[in-house]
Amino acid sequence: MNLTQNRGTTPDERIALPQSPTRPELIQRLRTTPRWDLVVIGGGATGLGVALDAAARGFTVALVEAEDFAKGTSSRATKLVHGGVRYLAQGNVALVHEALRERATLLHNAPHLAQPLAFVMPCHRAWETPFYGIGLKAYQWLAGRRSLGATRLLSASEALAQLPGLQADGLRGGVSYWDAQFDDARLATTLARTAIARGAAVLNHCAAVRLVHEGERVTGVEVQERESGEQFTLHAACVINAAGVWVDAVRELDRRYKRPMVAPSQGVHLVVDRDFLPGAGGHHKALIVPRTRDGRVLFAVPWLGKTLLGTTDTPREDLPAEPTPLAGEIEFILGEAGRYLARAPQRADVRSIWAGLRPLVRHKGDHEDDTKTISREHVVAVSRSGMVTVTGGKWTTYRAMAEDVLARCFKAGLLPARRGGVTEHLPLLGADGPRAVAIAAPPGAHLYGSEAAQLQSLPGADRWLWRDGDGGLSEAMVRFAVRFEMARTLEDVLARRSRLLFLDAREAERLAEPVAAIVGEELGRPIDAAQLSAFRQLAQQYQLRP
Ligand SMILES: Cc1cc2nc3c(=O)[nH]c(=O)nc-3n(C[C@H](O)[C@H](O)[C@H](O)COP(=O)(O)OP(=O)(O)OC[C@H]3O[C@@H](n4cnc5c(N)ncnc54)[C@H](O)[C@@H]3O)c2cc1C
Questions:
Q1: Is the CB of 64 under 6 A from ligand 1?
Q2: Would you call 289 helix, strand, or coil by DSSP?
Q3: Is residue 243 within 6 Å of ligand 1 at its C-beta?
Q4: Could you tell me the distance, in angstroms and rounded to a whole number, from the CA of residue 391 to the centre of ligand 1?
Q5: Which of 4, 206, 209, 515 pairs as cysteine with 64 (C-beta 3.0–4.6 A)?
């Protein structure tokens, strides 16, 4: 779908997705539609995937997201679209096979937001190169015709030539293989917009506050639109709880809630400059450490002009919207990165630091104080009241998870069965544009795919608020976020439509005021001082004091 020129009479019309409903129209539809086939709670990867799949099959769908799309875990991933080499080592071939199939599907349906990436694994003992080499060849074979490139065994000098930022001391060899990367938060917004284009009513800043029961059955959701405070009820044949690590809070609203499903585990990332991981000959390559001192996998990934270092796996009991990294996690990542990179990153080098919570599913016998051993697979559960809860899994498999959710709805008799596979060949908005620039390069118009021309036609296309290489953040990107990408707050723009908060938190803090002025202009009302100050505080939380 192409964006057309904005019609622009009132502020609410100006923020509309052309050919799509405005926010007031969406709210009106939610308020007045007597009954939906599905109401989805949660606008992360999981809920948005379900909304798009169901809408593409012709069901009527409403989705509410309490904060913003991907505000939860779905903006805090390592940004890999992967089968999971680690799960292959654990012998979970089915999980890896499914994820590799989904990797190919996503690369095809959203080439502006998900692309292949080469990885180098350094080896320090003689047996490691053949050992990991065989495993990674199996990973390539498992992908079959969907393989992105050959796995190769490398000598030490070849490994260094491929990844000049590697620590040369003690290097005995290496293995190179292919996987893929993406921009998670932009993909989430794109899923929301694609679902809307398919007829779904998808709204951010609107929370599910109560479940509606008729007898023992869940038959609807009471929601609160956060900007006005207005509450109204959405009636549905089927209510899907896709609230990520917060699914248990939604289950507690049901009458038959017994015990929690989720064992949350925190993962932290540090972001440093790109020159800690220079690519050879202009090619971007990632580093994977197969076994850190605590037995985990560590990545250094080139992403949007910077380098991501992570991650950790720390059990956590509380579920804050903005989890804070622990001192031990920071030391661990810096220490491990320092062992494998030629230039060891220091605290002062960190441009942004953020944490996310994995919604790992508890199974009988799992050791909850060791979340590394808890399954990464997803679970779909139908309660006696008929509410469908889906959690766990990975970003990579969001589409397959959505198909499973619909299959369970059919099996439970909540919806009439309709054929699946509809989203397998469904391009997401922007997919049909040129793809000359890598996601590893600084952010730019290329991330907008076929919508880049519309972006560049907005005021301020050449006015850069923040510059990184050939890219950065332009005034037009801020305007596009509010007009066409459903951004409502300063944080929506600076954390998720643009990823500046995740790339360079000091710059995000510095730009808060000028960006707020543009956002206010586009919304037709000023951003108030409280919002500005809350964003500055958040940006400080993403900074690491030396
Ligand atoms: C550190 C880390 C690294 C990861 N790396 C990768 C990776 O590289 N590749 C990969 O494939 N996967 C990765 N994952 C996993 C992946 O990010 C998650 O599986 C996925 O994002 C979960 O999405 P979700 O929609 O289930 O949850 P969320 O994204 O958390 O979405 C749930 C949403 O529900 C909303 N919500 C909660 N309560 C309500 C309510 N009452 N009303 C309305 N809305 C509500 C929340 O605001 C939230 O936005 C990683 C995870 C972590 C933590």
A1: yes
A2: strand
A3: yes
A4: 9
A5: 206
Query: Cβ-count burial of 306 within 10 angstroms (0-12 exposed, 13-18 middle, 19+ buried)?
Result: buried
Q: What is the pTM of this model?
A: 0.95
Distance (Å, whole) CA 475 – CA 186: 18
pLDDT, average across residues 518-525: 98
Among protein residues, the one whose CA lies closest to atom 19 of ligand 1 = 394
DSSP letter (8 states) at residue 426? -
- Protein residue with least CA distance to atom 4, ligand 1: 77
Lowest-pLDDT range, 169-183, 270-284, 469-483? 270-284
Tens digit of each residue's pLDDT (9 = 90 or more) over 234-263: 999 999 999 999 999 999 999 877 789 999
Taking the centre of ligand 1 as the mean of its atom positions, its distance from the CA of residue 257, in whole angstroms, is: 22
- Ligand 1, pocket-test mutation among 73, 119, 202, most atoms within 8 A of CB: 73
CA nearest 179: which of 267, 287, 289, 44? Answer: 287
> Is 14 in contact with 522 (CB distance < 8 Å)?
yes
Q: What is the amino acid identity at position 287? A: L
- DSSP letters for 196-217: HHTT-EEESSEEEEEEEEETTE
In whole angstroms, what is the distance from residue 121 CA to residue 348 CA?
Answer: 27
